[in-house]
Description:
mainly alpha, 2 domains, globular, disordered C terminus, Polysacc_synth, transmembrane, O-antigen transporter, cell membrane
Amino acid sequence: xxxxxxxxxxxxxxxxxxxxxxxxxxxxxxxYLTRVLLPEGYAIYAYVVSFMTFAQTFVDFGFNLSGTKxxxxxxxxxxxxxxxxxxxxxxxxxxxxxxxxVVVVAWFIPITHSNMLYTMLAFVAVFGKALAPDFLFQGxxxxxxxxxRYFVSKGVSTALTFVVVHSIxxxxxxxxxxxxxxxxxxxxxxxxxxxxxxxxxxxxxxSEALSELKVSALYCFSNMASVVFSGFTTLLIGIVxxxxxxxxxxxxxxxxxxxxxxxxxxIVNSLYPHMVKGGDxxxxxxxxxxxxxxxxxxxxxxxxxxxIVMLVLGGEDYLSGSWVIAWxxxxxxxxxYATMVGWPILGASxxxxxxxxxxxxxxxxxxxxxxxxxxxxxASMQVICIIRCxxxxxxxxxxxxxxxxxxxxxxxxxxxxxx
Length: 419
């Protein structure tokens, strides 16, 4: 195993460690918060968490992709400092706009309107987390500090939750502790960056920050398109499927699939900077080939064990809908390769527009197909599952086709790629 590949495997391990820690801390606090906040208080907490998920998507934008690429391609510390400054300034600009939108939207939603202070404190926490220069560590292919930073910052806020939150009257402490966690994460990030890479922030002209915002927009647009068509599927199901039980089955199936897909993230997040830095297409190709039997067996097992999955997630009352999980299971196979070939191979090689095109094209196919079957009255859950699987298949095949020169190169193409 070469030292170059050791970096990749080390980052995968660190990323899986981060994934595990992100599962553990909510499991520690969730039972406690549901008990002390009571249904009324927990409803506020849960709703604002969901609301902030959308805000975080806008604040994050596409900086972790565009910023990672810029760091990986930087040749001096000064270039890295300017990249950190440009991304930070762009995020500050975006944070002001997003904050204003959050205020306006929250004003018209009853639960956030009556808890405006809580909502705005939660946004400050989200915005603080977004300012952390994760892209710097990704660009250097050294993601260990991201895991240790999260463990320390979230560990402090989790421990203090049990100290200061005892009833619904203490609910404001939750976002305040999240802000504290963000401050600790920011401090850890910049201290680690200075110690490991000698980097700091060099503030740049506004024009450079706006340029960074423009470059990042394409990455963000692609990611947002993916979120939109997933959300549209759920929205349409709620309109055309009148059986509430079916809606519950779909929701649980999506939850199960999302849980499996989250296991792809450490590999994708580690492969993207690896490819940006080295263009190691042969290594990427081997990863894709080695994963074929694993994905095939895993997808078949997921479908075969759908009864057990549904029993664990929903209980005995939902067992009759386990077939929805089985019908939707091919999404796991196609989405893995669509994700792996997307940003790590096409995006890293500069084909950002192509990644966006395949995402938008798949989203259009999904939306048009769903509207068509709804209009002609054949929008059953089986049909919706088929459309969802075909959507992922189209994205997967189209990306593999666009990346064929890197994945299945002729001798001349291989020579060009190596150059």
